[in-house]
Design goal:
alpha+beta, 5-stranded mixed sheet, 46 helices, 35 strands, 17% strand, flat
């Protein structure tokens, strides 16, 4: 059949209608929104009345071998379900059986111990304890011990395979019978005991030095319980009600314990699940429920089981308890104000430690009071209650929300209330356990199609396992239509209950089902759809937008149920893939992201829907207009029918387009998608990876699919025409006339490459260029690249830049990109897209030149010069090629303008200051260099920044006296030089800090120092002071002229003593080396290098370590630091004067200082004596470089003190130096 000519706008409207239906399906209220009253009890029967909520699918009897084991029972028998591994567990005294109820005769027997088994649990293993094959841990409890078995499970048909592993992990039970076992998501094991306590079995991979591999911890006992003997604590167990069961809520990190007296204890497991804290105990559940619901008998209430409500099902309701009468009592751990007024606050509070534990709603059992409920299941809004219906069978009451009734009330009332369907199903035997074993949980069971698996439950009885399937409204309609005679009353009741739109949507689901429908059901569904599907009509209410109507020039039109049902069903079929990405990036390639089986399933349903719609003229797009005109009676009805025809046509085209996209995806799986996508530009690959299935169906997806299809053409060894035929047959709507021209041009280029004669090749290349220039505006960049690559292989270089520049100009015929560049390329401007498009076109030419480098200068001179934007792109290319001189020769008038425009880059900055130097604009060069050094947005090393600052100073000083200096005021130039020199000083300090950080292997902090030049304050506060970088502190003191003498002295003390105490250092020699190294950088800064202070420290250290001291060490240290002899003398003489008259210890100090002065003077004399200058000049230098008279006076004083202290050796040395000094002087 022919496709309609629906516009893209109509297609978008159809997609919006589909999405509105999907959103409506997703807005089904959660359970807490429906239970807003204090109590409720509203149930309805299905249609037909004998319809069941859960239907028996099959019954599997216990194997005869297990019955034989049951006959050997001596003490106790328990049983339950492990749906995680597809097994039922049964204990007979000390024997444990794991029965595969999918494979009736398959069961595993464990008889590895002799004690009666009282409880069994299946939990997740802790990480790092067991081998990878252990997916679960089986916890087996006896009155004497609790032990663990590893469970290996491999899923497969008929229940898969189970393997048990001995773990050698066990703990003593101390006579406590564990009544219930539960595990958390991270592997914690909680056990409820018949003594009323809650225990945790803690284990690890191996025994510790002082602890065992496993232990049992009583989580609910006080501290004193650890000091009470076991027999005494056993004697007091009767004071606490026995624990019946424990359940865990991993979504909220909570645990609940049900006690025999109907009390419920709530425990908080901590934010990370590793803690344990008793929060609250609800001891009066029955009384609290009776206050909320007068009809509830609260006295002596018996709670059968507790069931967690995960946070994704309800943000405020956390737990439901089922009573023996079948009532459900709902609990909340969220405060009333948060629960009623703020869903956001409720969601936040649900993940925190609860402060309340309240009964908030009572849901009474359906029907009149019956037999006692002895087993229950609650989950995913479905409830199953098992009660005795006879001596040999039970009745399982299935309860599920009545979705249609709830939605109908939500449409009429501000707040909908819960209405449920309830019906009984018979199971053979007495029910021990109920569990969900498969299927898909849906809050709104109306939003389903035939492919969604039904929820399946297992009822374990003493006779076997009965598998139950939950019935949905779709199943209800199927049952209704499958009756030999469809009762009109029941059909009207069904349509009235679920609405005409939903009933029609279900008809589409039945007519397009995977399985073959009975002809009776098919015929009845067609009759319901076409005879009772309604007609479009003018809306009586004022016009407003609705999901089931459309706005026309004559007013709002309410479309028929047949139309709305089609939109609903189409939305539900597409829902599994509609918002999912179709492709995913895999490195530099693409791969299919959609599940191919899921996509094939959706495609099959879409194709069946298309065939069904196409089989009736009332749906055929080509016949819609004629049919609408034929059935219309009035102008108003004609308008309504035309509106429905247009909407149906758009939906049909959306259906066809979705099938084509699915077919295209299927084709991608057949072809070499990874190899083809690897040739695509990264941005196209990213767009395809980001595109959802919906985006491929409408919007920009069409062009994305075309780009990918052309990439496939290039990647295939066959001709593109053959592949185009395949694409045209499967996806006829994906190729336009421009696509055909492109494919034909590519074929010409391939033929030209294979031509034997140059003339033929030239003709084919010319024809291809003509075709491509004609569609240049529609070419993508990748398509342009592919075509130009083909021209380049043919050595048709002029065709490359002709096509690329044509593509650029046709894409922007008004030169909008040039105006955008002239305005400074403002961010967020809508013109930027055109500018980027033109730049991409230019890059095609430049990349071709790259591949042919070195390029003949004549080729560069042939490049068109009419396009200024292309000229700047060419500048970028030449700059990247380090061809600045060539650039200046070719386009000198535009160079400065080009280098000054944004974005600023390091390469362009280097180019600019070199340009200024070549043109003798040294001041401008200095400014650029300073800006580069201080730029925090450029990736520069600190050494490079220092180099730029040095060059800036050099250029600034060079500009003095140059021609360009006349334009710069002298004071401005001087200020710029001082600022740059200050920056250089700080940068050099910063370099010292960086080197020290690198020595400490603090690479992250060292890298931070590359990012910019810091201030001295920042260097001190962020690096030097917190990291105790003493050298850097002193350099900072010098750079900042710091005047805190005590702080400076403290830094020197710490620094030199740390050097002295370093075990890897050479003692005083290392100290001397450190002072010389720093002094050469710090002198003559009195704030950072106080000579007297440093000299005193050196003397003190020398006295502390006389064995390491060598004569002249102190004065030589200062000489190596390039301190003048005179300054050294002043510092040492000042020290001597301060200490000469002190105690004996200070006399040693003075003697050492005096000896250093004498050696200093001798060294000074020797250095002057070795000079070859004339005598008169040498005498003048002696006087200027050393205060000779002061030295002579000081020596005289030292001699007197040495005489008084009877230090003959020192006295002789001093006298000898004094004599030499006087002789020379």
């Amino acid at each position: 059949m022919a496709s309609s000519t629906t516009t893209e706008a109509a297609l978008e409207q159809a997609a919006q209608l589909v999405e509105s239906k999907q959103q409506a399906d997703a807005k089904f209220p959660e359970i807490s929104e429906l239970l807003h009253a204090s109590s409720s009890c509203e149930y309805e029967a299905g249609i037909p009345p004998d319809w069941q909520v859960v239907r028996k699918q099959r019954a599997v009897g216990l194997p005869d071998a297990l019955f034989e084991q049951y006959d050997l029972l001596e003490c106790r028998c328990f049983m339950g379900l492990f749906p995680e591994i597809g097994r039922a567990w049964i204990t007979v005294d000390h024997r444990l059986f794991l029965w595969n109820y999918e494979d009736e005769e398959d069961f595993y027997t464990f008889e590895g111990q002799e004690q009666v088994i009282v409880s069994v649990g299946l939990v997740r293993p802790q990480r790092g304890v067991f081998v990878d094959d252990v997916k679960h841990v089986l916890v087996v409890a006896t009155p004497l011990e609790v032990f663990l078995l590893g469970v290996g499970y491999r899923a497969g048909p008929r229940g898969g395979d189970v393997t048990l592993y001995a773990t050698q992990i066990s703990v003593a039970a101390d006579g406590v019978a564990m009544t219930s076992i539960a595990g958390t998501a991270d592997g914690r094991i909680l056990m409820a005991g018949n003594d009323g306590a809650l225990y945790e079995l803690q284990y690890r991979a191996a025994d510790g030095w002082l602890s065992r591999r496993a232990r049992k911890v009583n989580l609910t006992a006080g501290v004193l319980s650890y000091f009470v003997p076991t027999f005494l604590s056993a004697a007091t167990r009767g004071a606490v009600s026995a624990a019946v069961s424990v359940v865990v809520d991993d979504t909220r990190r909570l645990a609940y314990v049900l006690q025999q007296d109907a009390a419920i204890r709530l425990f908080w497991l901590g934010a990370d699940g590793s803690a344990f804290e008793h929060v609250l105990t609800h001891r009066s559940v029955g009384a609290a429920a009776a206050l909320l619901c007068p009809q509830f008998e609260g006295t002596g209430v018996e709670l059968v089981s507790l069931h967690v409500i995960p946070i994704h099902e309800s943000r405020s309701l956390a737990l439901v308890a089922v009573t023996s009468g079948g009532a459900r009592i709902y609990f909340s751990t969220v405060g009333r104000a948060q629960r009623l007024h703020s869903t956001v606050a409720a969601a936040a509070a649900a993940s925190e430690k609860p402060a309340v534990f309240d009964v908030v709603h009572v849901r009474l059992a359906p029907g009149s009071p019956g037999a006692r409920v002895h087993a229950a299941y609650c989950g995913g809004s479905t409830t199953l209650l098992a009660r005795a219906a006879g001596e040999d069978h039970d009745a399982v009451v299935g309860i599920a929300p009545a979705s249609a009734q709830i939605l109908a009330r939500a449409a009429r009332q501000p707040r909908a209330s819960l209405v449920e369907l309830a019906a009984e199903a018979r199971v053979e035997g007495r029910t021990w356990a109920l569990a969900e074993i498969g299927g898909q949980t849906m809050r709104n069971d109306l939003a389903t199609v035939d492919a969604v698996p039904q929820r399946r439950f297992a009822a374990l009885t003493n006779a076997g396992v009965t598998v139950l399937e939950q019935q949905r409204p779709l199943d209800m309609l199927r049952a209704l239509l499958s009756q030999p005679t469809v009762r009109d009353a029941e059909l009207r009741a069904f349509v009235s209950t679920y609405g005409l739109d939903e009933a029609c949507a279900m008809c589409y689901a039945l007519l397009c089902a995977d399985d073959t429908q009975p002809m009776r059901v098919d015929a009845a569904a067609r009759r319901l759809l076409f005879e009772h599907g309604g007609i479009p009509r003018a809306a009586e209410a004022p016009a407003f937008a609705t999901a089931s109507g459309t706005e026309q020039s004559g007013g709002q039109v309410e479309l028929s149920g047949r139309h709305n049902g089609l939109a609903m069903y189409l939305a539900r079929v597409l829902q599994p893939v509609w918002t999912l990405p179709a492709l995913a990036a895999d490195g530099a390639q693409l791969r299919m992201a959609l599940n191919t089986q899921l996509l094939a399933s959706v495609q099959r349903r879409l194709q069946r829907l298309q065939r069904f719609v196409a089989s009736d003229q009332r749906f055929v797009p080509d016949q819609l207009g004629n049919f609408a005109a034929a059935v219309a009676q009035t102008a108003d009805s004609a308008r309504c029918w035309q509106a429905e025809a247009a909407s149906l046509a758009a939906l049909y085209d959306l259906l066809v387009r979705a099938i084509e996209v699915a077919s295209f995806a299927d084709l991608l799986c057949e072809l070499n998608l990874p190899a083809a996508s690897a040739t695509m530009p990264p941005d196209q690959r990213q767009q395809l990876a980001d595109a959802t299935f919906a985006r491929l169906v409408c919007g920009t997806g069409r062009s994305l699919c075309r780009d990918l299809a052309l990439a496939l053409v290039h990647a295939q060894p066959v001709g593109s025409s053959a592949l185009s035929d395949v694409l045209g047959a499967r996806c006829a709507g994906m190729f336009s006339a421009a696509d055909v021209a492109l494919c034909r041009a590519l074929e010409h280029l391939r033929a030209a490459a294979e031509a034997d004669e140059d003339a033929a090749a030239a003709t084919l290349a010319r024809d291809a260029l003509e075709l491509l220039v004609g569609i240049a505006a529609s070419l993508s960049i990748q398509q342009l690249r592919d075509a130009c690559a083909a021209f380049e292989k043919l050595d048709r270089l002029s065709c490359v830049w002709t096509l690329a520049l044509a593509c650029a100009t046709q894409s922007d015929p008004r030169d909008t990109a040039l105006a955008f560049w002239g305005d400074g390329a403002p961010a967020g401007d809508e013109r930027e897209a055109l500018y980027r498009r033109r730049m991409d076109c230019y890059n095609v030419v430049l990349e071709m030149l790259d591949r042919r480098w070195p390029v003949d200068i004549r080729v560069l001179q042939q490049l068109p010069r009419e396009d200024p934007l292309f000229q700047f792109a060419l500048f970028d290319w030449l700059l990247a090629r380090d061809q600045s001189s060539l650039l200046f020769r070719m386009h000198a008038p535009l160079v400065e303008q080009y280098l000054l425009i944004e974005p600023r880059t390091l390469e362009k900055g280097d180019m600019l200051w070199h340009f200024y130097v070549q043109s003798s604009q040294y001041y401008n060069a200095a400014l650029v260099l300073q800006q580069l050094a201080c730029a925090s947005d450029l990736d520069l090393s600190l050494t490079k920044r220092i180099e730029y600052l040095s060059l800036a100073i050099t250029n600034a000083k060079t500009s003095v006296g140059s021609a360009s200096a006349n334009a710069v005021p002298a004071d401005e130039l001087s200020l710029m030089v001082r600022e740059t020199e200050d920056l250089l000083d700080v940068a050099q300090v910063q370099l010292v800090i960086q080197q020290q950080l690198e020595q400490q292997q603090n690479n992250e902090a060292a890298r931070d120092l590359d990012r910019r030049i810091y201030t001295v304050t920042e260097l001190y506060d962020r690096f030097a002071e917190p990291l105790r970088l003493w050298d850097a502190m002193l350099l900072i003191f010098k750079a900042s002229n710091h005047d805190d003498a005590q702080m400076v002295e403290d830094v020197w003390q710490v620094l030199l003593r740390s050097v002295l105490d370093d075990q890897q250092s050479t003692g005083l020699l290392a100290v001397s080396s450190k002072v010389s190294q720093l002094g050469s950088r710090l002198y003559p800064s009195a704030s950072a290098f106080p000579l007297t202070v440093v000299a005193r420290i050196l003397v003190d250290l020398s006295l502390e370590r006389p064995a390491e001291y060598s004569r002249g060490l102190i004065f030589n240290t200062f000489v190596q630091a390039q301190v003048p002899h005179g300054a050294i003398f002043d510092a040492l003489n000042k020290l001597y004067s301060q200490r000469a008259s002190s105690s004996q210890g200070c006399s040693e100090f003075a003697a050492l200082v005096a000896r250093e002065v004498s050696l200093l003077a001798a060294d000074w004399i020797d250095s002057q004596a070795s000079s070859e200058q004339p005598r008169g000049l040498r005498d003048e230098k002696l006087v200027d470089s050393l205060p000779v008279m002061d030295v002579d006076t000081a020596l005289s004083q030292y001699i007197i003190n040495a005489t008084l202290s009877n230090n003959q050796e020192l006295k002789s040395a001093l006298q000898h130096v004094q004599e030499r000094l006087r002789q020379i002087f």
